[in-house]
Specification:
The complex is a heterodimer of chains A (330) and B (320). The mean pLDDT of chain A is 91. Chain A has 330 residues and is an alpha/beta fold. In chain A, helix 4 crosses helix 5 and helix 4 packs parallel to helix 7. In chain A, 34% of the residues lie in helices and 23% in strands. In chain A, strand 1 and strand 2 form a beta hairpin. Chain B is an alpha/beta fold. Chain B has a domain of 77 residues. Helices cover 32% and strands 23% of the residues of chain B. The mean pLDDT of chain B is 89. Classes of the chains: A alpha/beta (330), B alpha/beta (320). Chains A and B meet through helix 3, helix 7, helix 8, helix 9 and helix 10 of A and helix 3, helix 6, helix 7 and helix 8 of B. Bound molecules: adenosine-5'-triphosphate (ATP) (2 copies) and magnesium ion (MG) (2 copies). The site of one magnesium ion has 4 residues of chain B, from helix 1.
Amino acid sequence: MTEKPAPLLEVRDLSVSVSRDGAPTRILRGVNYRIYPGETLAIVGESGSGKTLGALSVVRLLPPGAKIDSGGVLYGGKDLASLSEEELREVRGAGISMVFQEPMTSLNPVLTIGLQLAEPLMEHKGLSYAQALPACAGLLEKVGITDAKNRLAQYPHNFSGGMRQRVMIAMALACGPDLVIADEPTTALDVTVQAQILDLVDALKKESGMALALITHNLGIVAQRADYVLVFYAGRVFERAPAAEFFKSPANPYSRALLNSLPRWSDKPGEPLKTIEGLPPSFDEDPPGCPFAPRCPEVFEKCRGQEPPEFRTGERRASKCWRSEAGFEL
Amino acid sequence: MPAILNVDNVTKRYRKAGGLFSSGGELFTAVDGVSLSLEMNTTLGIVGESGSGKTTLAKLILGIEKPDSGRVVLDGKELSSLSSAGLRKARRGAQMVFQDPYSSLDPRMKVGDLVLEPLRAAGEKIADGEKTAAALLEKVGLKADALRRYPHEFSGGQRQRVAIARALATGPRLILADEPISSLDISIQAQIMNLLNELKKELGISYIFISHDLAAVRYLCDFVAVMYRGCVVEYASAAELFRDTRHPYTRLLLSAVPDPDPARKTVLEERRGGSGAGPGPQACVFSDRCPRAEQACLGGRPGYEEITPGHFVRCCRTHT
Ligand SMILES: Nc1ncnc2c1ncn2[C@@H]1O[C@H](COP(=O)(O)OP(=O)(O)OP(=O)(O)O)[C@@H](O)[C@H]1O
Ligand SMILES: Nc1ncnc2c1ncn2[C@@H]1O[C@H](COP(=O)(O)OP(=O)(O)OP(=O)(O)O)[C@@H](O)[C@H]1O
Ligand SMILES: [Mg+2]
Ligand SMILES: [Mg+2]
C-alpha cells in the first residue's frame, strides 16, 4: 500500500468575520479542506459566499475589519498563525503566492510592468533589477505577451484587461511557489490564451509538484483541469468531492442547482435560462436551519429547523445536507 | 430598421513605449480599420483574442477615446462633431459596464449613490432616490441593504452587479457591456442574461456584449464580430457563425472552449507558435499562427469578403 502524501495545506474549521456598521458579522463558518502537492483544487460557488475571504485568510492578507475568529491554516504542517510577519512575507513570496481577483487594484498604476514583475525576484531571489529583467521578459512570453521588451517599459493602463491578468499570473509564478492561489485569474482571457496558461500551470505542477487552488465560476475549466472541487454557499463549504465524481453525481442540492443553470450549447437563444429562484441569505440575519433551505427544490421539514453538519459520503467526499445523512431515504 | 450605431473604418494607435508623459516612439495599432453597424434592438457580440482591441473599440464608440481616423455615428450623431455637452448627452443614451468594476466605482460613495450617479450627472430630478436605487439593485439580484454600504464591502461579483445596475439607471438605448458576467456565479450569470433579454424586449435596448464566454455569446447575441489584432476577421449572425465557422482563428477559438463535461476532453485545433513580433504590415494578421497559412497570406492583407449574404470573412483561403 502506498502511503498518502502529507497535505501541503490544511484549512481547519476556519471561521472569519468582517465588520459591518461597526459590528462583527460572521461570513465563513467552519471551512475545512486540504490541498495535496501537485493537485488542482477548484473553488466554485455562489457570488459573495466567501471564496475570496477564504483565500485571503490563507495568506493572512484579510482587509481591515476582517478577522479570523477560530480555526486555522497549516502549511507544510506549520500553523501560519504562529509565524512572524517576516516569516509570513517569506511564505507569501516563495511558498504560497496569490493571484488577486482584481488586477487593476493590485497593480501599481505609476510603476512600470517591468519593475512590478521584477519585485518578487529581487526580494526573494536576491537578484538585481538588471539581472531580473531577462527573467521578466521570459515570464511575459510564457503567458503569451509578445514584444516583451517594449511591454516591460509600459504601465498597467497601457495593457488590456487580459494582459493585466497575465501579468498577475506571471508575478505569482516568478519564484517557483509550492502553491498558487488564483482568484478568478482567467476571466478576461480568450479561451486559447486561457488554455495556454492552464497548460503552463499543468506543466509546472508536473515538474515541481506545485499545487493550484483555483477560484472560478467557469465550470468548463473545472471539468477539464481540476482534481478536486469545493462548493461554497453562504460562507460554508456545501460540498467537497473529487472533480470527476462531482460532475457525475453531485451530492448537494445546491451543487445540482448550480450545474443546472449553466448555459448549454443546446439552449435556444431567447428562451429564459434556468436560475436558482430567490436570493442568498444576508449574513446579518442568521435564521436557523440550512441557509439554502428557502431556495432548495429538495427542502423538507428538518432543513428549516436545524442546520445540517457536514456528512461524509465517501473517500474525500462530504456534503452539508440532511439528504446526505447516512441511512437517509426518501 | 434604423441603425443605432455606425462605426466606419475606425483606427486607433497608441505609442509603444508608453511612458505616462513620454511622446515619440513607435506606434502600435490597437484598432485597425474596423467597420460595424448595429440595428436598433439587436445584440452584437464581440469576441476575440485578449488584447485585440475590444475594449478600445468600446471606448471609441462612447467617445472616451478619439479615433485617429474613421468615424463613429451614435444614434444619428457623429461623435467628432459634438461639443462636450453634446457628448455628455449622447453618453447618457449609451452606457458602459466596464471590464474592471472595482476601479470604475468610486470607493468613497455608497452603493445607493453610485447607482443613481448617472441620473444625477444627467441633471435628472429623482423623486424617491432610495426606492429607485433599491429597484435597480433588485433587478441585478442585490438586496436593498446594499444601498448604504461601500464598494469594498462587496465581493467581486456583487460589485459587478452594482456596475450593471448603474448602467441601467438612465434607461439607455445602447449598453456596452465589457465582460459583464464572467465574475458572477452561473446562476446569477443566467439571471443577468435573462434580464438583458427582457429589457431588450420591453424597452428596445441594443447591446454590445464583449465576452470570452462563447456559449453566452451564442445564447445572447444576434450578431457576432470576431477580432484578432485590431481587425474584425469574421462577422455573421450568431446562428450562422457558430454553424458555418469560416475563419481559422474563429475555429481555433471554438475548439478551445473548455467543455463542462469532464468526459469530453477539449482538444485544441492545431495552431502554430507565432513569431513574437507578429506578422508584417503586409501580411494577414493571423498568418503567423494560422495552421492553413501559405505564401499568399504573407503577400497581401485579405479584404473583407461577403461569402454568403451577411457573412463576412477576412481570409485569403476562404475558397480553398
Ligand atoms: N471588507 C469587507 N467588509 C465587509 N464585508 C465584506 C468585506 N469583504 C467581503 N465582504 C462580504 O463578505 C462576503 C464574502 O465576500 P467574498 O469576497 O469572499 O465573496 P466571493 O465568494 O469571493 O464572491 P465573488 O464570487 O463575487 O468574488 C460578501 O457577502 C461580502 O459582501
Ligand atoms: N492607453 C493605452 N496605451 C497604450 N496601449 C494601449 C492603451 N490601451 C490599450 N492599449 C493596447 O491596445 C491593445 C488593445 O487593448 P484592448 O484593451 O482594447 O484589448 P481587449 O481586446 O479589450 O483585450 P482583453 O480581452 O484582454 O481585455 C493592447 O495591445 C493594449 O496593450
Ligand atoms: Mg471573490
Ligand atoms: Mg478588454
